[in-house]
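lol so apparently i was supposed to do this last week
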Amino acid sequence: MASIKNDRRDFIKFSTLGILGLTLGGGIAISPYALQAEMRLRPPGAVSEDEFLALCIKCGQCLQVCPYHSIKLADFAKGHGIGTPYIDARERGCYACSAVPCVLACPSGALDHACEKPEDIKMGIAVLEFPNKCIAMTNTPVPKGHSQRIHNFVNEQRNITQLELDMLDKLDGFEGKQCTLCADMCPIPSPLGAISMIQASNGKKPEIYEGCIGCGVCEEVCPANEPAIVVKPRLTYEDYYIKGIKS
Ligand code: SF4
Ligand code: SF4
Ligand code: SF4
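anyway here it is w/ iron/sulfur cluster bound
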């Protein structure tokens, strides 16, 4: 509940600043932010972007029920779709809850109720975008304090859940080991084949498979300063890895 209040406060703050900016600028200029249709990671079950923007009533029900605080409301500075829910994967990915409560909570059809279980989720596709930043490829152990950023995020929430505490415990266990964080924190069980570590020339590296749902957890937990692995919103495995569509 605190999270939705914070998001709504930010939303109002940025909206006000945005409107003020337009007014001071003569009231006729449209902010470049408003014109920039930034591709966002939408919550599970999101219909196509055009339909999503038309259907979402910005009620915030999806983020209220998320036990991981994964969903935020877009503010003015983030551009298109002001007030619509999105996921900032580097801050907090989606942990693919078994009953997908965010979808169940959506009253408008913006999140399609046909998305009933984790394997139905298709938010995007993970990509090892910056292999030179992947510490597993140079056999560098996971550094001390790698999870501090994520602890800080959780500590900022006023209604921390047991699921979040369990996730932090698991995360802390990787310190000093060879990095397999993206593969081992992935919420999709391995038989479904989302990601695994494979041999690389000087160490190991993650390989993405068709079962990846684009939840963004790998991007969140990657211990590199800038994530080596990122999620491309709205793209499928076929789009990126077979057809070569990159964005
Ligand atoms: S599936 Fe769970 S973790 Fe993911 S956005 Fe929905 S409620 Fe949050
Ligand atoms: S590889 Fe796993 S953690 Fe990464 S986006 Fe895909 S499903 Fe999520
Ligand atoms: S989380 Fe994955 S991509 Fe990031 S450094 Fe570790 S093995 Fe590499």
